[in-house]
């Protein structure tokens, strides 16, 4: 594994980058962008920082919209939304629907969005649940079962973990 020093030289908590292909470069690049947007230190406002950021973007895994990776994510999201109500929705079924192996799907999703397919399935289901709750399409248990959760407590736990509030809070604020 090759370690390279970071180009901005003094960001807190960052000593070197790993080029082992697991997405750390992308995460570090996004952290640098956030730091540069909110920092008023001289190194972040200099032209040198701009040049370093352009170099980071060129080496990172950030892809422009419309690429094959973005189309893959769009296809995966659309398929998940269409099959969200099925309890047996799995990464294997998603990979088969997208005509690729489970390993290839995992590798491509992690490289393009930074999350594995199982997490994408859970996120899409929770986003769909949030939309249904906001629109008043039934109570919490109806929505939980409509998006494929088999346990109301499992749905509530996942929703609270993802959004930081229980799903019933949407029903309370809506009315």
Computed structural class: mainly alpha
How many helical elements? 10
Largest sheet: 2 strands, antiparallel
- Give the low-pLDDT segments: 1-22, 42-49
CA-CA gap between termini: 55 Å
Count of strand segments: 2
Shape: elongated
H-E order: EEHHHHHHHHHH
Task: State Rg.
Answer: 20 Å
Strand residues, percent: under 5%
Q: Report helical residue fraction.
A: 55-70%
Strand order of the largest sheet: 1-2
Mean pLDDT: 74
Structure description:
This protein is mainly alpha-helical. Residues 1-22 and 42-49 have low confidence and may be disordered. The longest helix has 18 residues, at 117-134. It is 63% helix and 3% strand. A two-stranded antiparallel sheet has the order 1-2. The chain is elongated and about 40 Å long. The protein has helices at 24-38, 42-45, 47-59, 68-82, 91-97, 102-113, 117-134, 140-146, 152-163, 168-174; strands at 3-5, 16-18.
Put the structure in a nutshell.
Helices cover 63% and strands 3% of the residues.
Question: Topology of this protein?
Answer:
Elements: E1 3-5, E2 16-18, H1 24-38, H2 42-45, H3 47-59, H4 68-82, H5 91-97, H6 102-113, H7 117-134, H8 140-146, H9 152-163, H10 168-174
Antiparallel strand pairs: 1-2
Helix pairs in contact: 1-3, 4-6
């Amino acid at each position: 594994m090759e370690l390279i020093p970071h180009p901005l030289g003094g960001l807190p908590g960052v000593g070197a980058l790993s080029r082992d292909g697991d997405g750390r470069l992308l995460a570090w690049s996004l952290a640098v962008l956030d730091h540069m947007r909110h920092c008023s230190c001289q190194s972040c406002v200099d032209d040198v920082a701009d040049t370093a950021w352009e170099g980071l973007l060129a080496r990172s895994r950030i892809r422009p919209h419309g690429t094959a990776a973005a189309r893959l994510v769009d296809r995966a999201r659309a398929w998940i939304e269409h099959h969200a109500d099925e309890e047996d929705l799995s990464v294997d079924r998603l990979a088969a629907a997208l005509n690729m192996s489970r390993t290839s799907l995992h590798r491509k999703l992690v490289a393009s969005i930074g999350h594995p397919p199982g997490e994408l399935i859970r996120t899409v289901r929770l986003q769909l649940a949030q939309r249904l709750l906001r629109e008043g399409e039934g109570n919490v248990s109806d929505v939980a079962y409509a998006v494929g959760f088999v346990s109301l407590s499992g749905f509530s736990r996942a929703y609270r973990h993802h959004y930081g509030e229980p799903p019933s809070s949407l029903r309370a604020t809506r009315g």
